[in-house]
Specification:
Helix content: 25-40%
Strand content: 15-25%
Order of helices and strands: HEHEEHHEHEEHEHEEHEHEHHEEH
Number of strands: 13
CATH superfamily of the largest domain: P-loop containing nucleotide triphosphate hydrolases
Distance between the termini: 44 Å
CATH topology of the largest domain: Rossmann fold
Structural class: alpha/beta
CATH class of the largest domain: Alpha Beta
Largest sheet: 9 strands, mixed
Amino acid sequence: MQPPRFWYGAEGRDSALLLQALAQPLSWLYAAISAAKIAHATPERVAAPVICVGNLTVGGAGKTPVVRAIRAQLRAMGVEAHTLSRGHGGALKGPVRVNDTHTAADVGDEPLLHARDGAAWIARDRLAGALAMIAAGAQAIVMDDGFQNPALAKHLSVLVFDAEAGAGNARVVPAGPLREPLKAGLARANAVILIHGSRAPARSEDDDPSRLDRALEGFGKPILHATLEPQGEAPAGPLLAFAGIGRPQKFFDTLKALGGDMVDGASFPDHHAYAEADLKNLAAHASAHGARLITTEKDHVRLPPAWRAQVLTLPVVARFAEPETLDALLRAAVAKRREAP
């Protein structure tokens, strides 16, 4: 789904307030159910450090590049880390180790990207997945999402936010973009990562972009800053960009900031499964402009194999302004597990 515009105050003051008011009772119910689930759970400890990269908002915040960066840092420390995902959008329940025979329809898109870095697993039952990973030799488990899942005891939990989108109107779904109240989520986090350099959905003057900043004033734990940097330059020539991620505009803005000649941009729902008709229409549109198609890495792995060679990608990596802080957090998490009885 694409985030409703009123989550970010883009409907105008009166209509945004009305939509929020209508959705608020469901938000209270959603928050209460989530809180009860977490409060009554007894997280299981496993014989490897569990590092969770989550978020409090629905939609893309930049978790997957952060997971890949954390995994690379652990590898540099000599720790064999495997990634664990739910496998959103995939048919398999797991636990299953992702391999090159799997498709996004099997395991989802993010696990296919993680599998390029090494061992990647999907499991709807996170505890069962962790145990399978440890049996296969994992020395650390890096969870892509799962902050609200209480099945596993976590040694380090970091929350990722788009620095410009922040927390939107700071309300819980469906009245806003939050999965749980800011205060409750931040209380369980060990660190926050703010992703800079992207443009948030349009806001009105009545939407306060400083809500997240105010919530973080009393956080008292590390706040890291990172950017999603493209690997390489924008391809030459006219480009027709398309994306089915949490915020497609972030991709379009990045491409244009690199100097890409973007003739048009097509947005699709997050995790969109591209049909042949979608791609034929995109190809025809690109041809009319003498352009080539370009998309994100996450979208590219969801394309039918016959189309992948016809579509360019623009990979991005997470670059941290304080790499030493990230290193210290990871070393503490690994040491914490090794010192446990």
